[in-house]
Amino acid sequence: MSITTSQREKFVNQGEMIVGIDVAKHTHVTRILFPDGSESKAFGFSNNRRGFEDFIAWISSYKGKAENGSIIVGLESTGHYWEPLAFYLEGVARWA
């Protein structure tokens, strides 16, 4: 089923970016759904601290597209592979 940009736009609150992460053992893949309904290209990053830092830098490069600076991150809970990323993001959010 194909969803148009205008249909995707209805799923995003005004000014928020939604970041979806497909969790894997070694390399996670992520995309951003922007408030206007458009999407970023896929971005892959390693399941380690360096990869998480690359992920944060990648998100930061798009932060200007979120009018109120709100970013929602959702990730697939595949086994236990999501845990290192979730704990890292929780720590980053506390200090942001």
Description of the structure:
The chain is of the alpha+beta class and 96 residues long. Helices cover 33% and strands 25% of the residues. It is built from 3 helices and 4 strands, in the order αβββαβα. The chain has helices at 5-9, 49-62, 83-95; strands at residues 16-22, 27-33, 43-46, 70-75. A 4-stranded mixed beta sheet has the order 3-2-1-4, covered by helices on one side. Strand 1 (16-22) and strand 2 (27-33) form a beta hairpin. The longest helix is centred in the middle third of the chain and has 14 residues, at 49-62. It is globular, with a radius of gyration of 13 Å. The model has no long low-confidence stretch (mean pLDDT 84).
What CATH architecture label applies? 2-Layer Sandwich
Write down the CATH class: Alpha Beta
The CATH topology name reads Nucleotidyltransferase, domain 5
- Share in helix: 25-40%
- Taking all Cα atoms into account, the compactness measure Rg is 13 Å
Main pleated-sheet profile: 4 strands, mixed
- Helix/sheet category: alpha+beta
Number of strands: 4
Shape: globular
SS element count, helices? 3
Beta-strand content estimate: 25-35%
What is the averaged pLDDT score? 84
What is the CA–CA distance across the termini?
38 Å
Give the topology string: H per helix, E per strand: HEEEHEH
Low-pLDDT stretches = none
Overall tally of structural domains: 1
Strand order of the largest sheet: 3-2-1-4
